[in-house]
Amino acid sequence: MQPPSEMVHWLFGMGVLVLGLLMLAEVIVGREVWARRPWRAYLWPGLAFGLGVGMWPVMTFFTNSAIHMVAHGAWAQALMVMGGAELGLARGRLHSRWWKLATPIGIAVSGAAFLVHEQNGWFFARSAFLHHLVGWTLVGAALFPLALVFRPRSAVLKAAFALSVIALSVMLFADRDLAPVFGHLSPLAGPSHR
Amino acid sequence: MASQLVRELPADRAYANTRARVITLLGPSTVVAGIIWAIVQPYRLTLLHPHGQGFWWLAIEPPLLVAFAGIVFAVFVARPLVADLEDDATA
Question: Where are the domains of chain B?
Answer without folding.
Answer: 11-90
